[in-house]
Write a structure and sequence with these properties.
single chain, alpha/beta, two-stranded parallel ribbon, 7 helices, 10 strands
Length: 273
């Protein structure tokens, strides 16, 4: 099958999904000897646009895993703003060393429903947004080599296609409910309303947290205020060079502690073609 261009479209609050998706897409473009182009789907303004592709496009679409599925506040944008129009797609999810659960199955189902033809899928372990204790430093060089190998396998598959492929088979249930976070006591940890706090002694009112928030939830004039919906992505915490942002919600901290107690063993990446 003749691919004329490789695209990357990704939601990446803290940068690791961006790095993963574009490593795969760049390697794919080199193998197929076609140009590559990137589309960030992360900032609110970027998700206001609609993106249409065509036959001859190969699109790597990537998202982090939130509670075992796609981020629920971003899912409607994936469903409503992307138009495959017969393009081929590679579904990629990242996960913070616990599990990708049903996220990859959900992303594949969304893409097929949006008019794409999925040819491959993958799940890559990356540093957890909440803590450096889980998968710190990932994706690392071994992960990058695995991404490039995966891209080579996709390129070989695409070159040998003589007709549109059947949807790629991946594990999971796209319609399954979200994973219920637990605390150290084993009980559900309810922290939906948790929002980042600000150490006013460290904050310089630079506004970086507001600029990087994928939900536009932080008041750019008063960065200590979070009037919008927080999805706990930790972009504000990770991007603040003064380390002024933090979470102090007890249920949230108990969940993080549970993750650190139970999921430090490095997880393997998974590939499906």
């Amino acid at each position: 099958m003749d691919v004329k261009k490789v695209w990357t479209l990704y939601f990446s609050a803290t940068g690791n999904t961006d790095k993963t998706a574009n490593t795969i897409a760049d390697a794919l473009a080199r193998r197929l000897e076609v140009p590559a182009e990137r589309i960030s789907f992360t900032r609110p303004g970027e998700r206001e646009k609609e993106y249409s592709f065509t036959e001859g496009d190969l699109v790597v679409v990537a998202s982090p895993t939130y509670a075992g599925k796609l981020p629920n506040k971003i899912l409607p944008d994936f469903q409503g703003k992307l138009h495959g129009c017969g393009a081929l797609a590679v579904a990629v999810v990242t996960f913070g060393n616990r599990s990708y659960d049903n996220a990859l199955a959900e992303l594949c189902a969304v893409l097929e429903g949006d008019g794409f033809h999925t040819v491959a899928g993958a799940a890559f372990a990356c540093r957890h947004a909440f803590t450096d204790a889980l998968a710190d430093g990932r994706p690392d060089w071994d992960d990058k080599r695995a991404m490039e190998t995966f891209a080579g396998q996709i390129a070989d598959k695409v070159k040998n296609l003589t007709e549109l492929p059947a949807p790629v088979a991946v594990p999971g249930d796209a319609a399954a409910p979200y994973y219920v976070p637990k605390g150290t006591d084993g009980q559900p940890a309810k922290f939906l309303k948790a929002k980042p706090q600000t150490d006013l002694g460290k904050c310089t009112d630079c506004g970086a947290c507001a600029r990087f928030c994928p939900m536009g939830a932080i008041d750019p004039e008063h960065p200590a205020l979070v009037p919008g919906t927080c999805i706990k992505c930790h972009a504000c915490v990770r991007k603040c060079t003064k380390h002024a942002k933090y979470f102090d919600d007890p249920a949230f901290l108990s969940h993080v502690a549970m993750l650190e107690q139970n999921f430090t063993e490095p997880k393997e990446n998974a590939f499906f073609l």
